[in-house]
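Workshop exercise sheet. Pairs work together: one partner reads the sequence aloud, the other fills in the structure field after running the prediction. Swap roles for the next sheet.
Pair: D.N. / O.F.
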Amino acid sequence: MDEDAPRMDAELLRAAGRDPSAFGELYDRHASPILRWALRSGLDQADALDLVSELFARAWVSRKRYRDPGDGNAAPWLYGIARNLLASHRRSGHIEARARKRLRVPQLTEPDPSDAVADRVDAIASRGALDRALAALPGRHAEAVRLRVVDGLGYADIATQLGCTETTARKWVSLGLRSLRTRMEVAS
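Structure field:
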């Protein structure tokens, strides 16, 4: 084997316990693409950076459990951890609150009436674009978004109302919000 050839991810993970720079090399190889993925998934910069940090902390802790699928590539393993972290973040409700803000949908409670007036003016101004964007969504996605963002229901309640699993309800809300965000960005 060529000594100048870059080491495969699996080799870096095996060496990381005795050579921490090997884990640094793995980080350097994958952190930027995973950060871009997290941003495309709808996280803001701060949350995306937090996700990458937590991902590599978990990868470090569980590096001995990594099983090479035979190609030496750890990217699928790392993205699997990232997807789990993103799902956990979404369950925590942060994504929905930001989605309400981006879509100019008033919050269910209004802590400061003066802020609420400005938010309502913005919501009224973008209502037509939002209605068109919602109408363009597949029926189940639109209903799931309405139940989650407007009615404030939890995923278990959404699943019950739509006759699907909670995982499916989460997926429909996620896909619907992503599509709405894209459509609203194009409209503005």
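Discussion prompt: The domain at 9-91 is CATH 1.10.1740.10 (Rna Polymerase Sigma Factor; Chain: A). What would you look at next?
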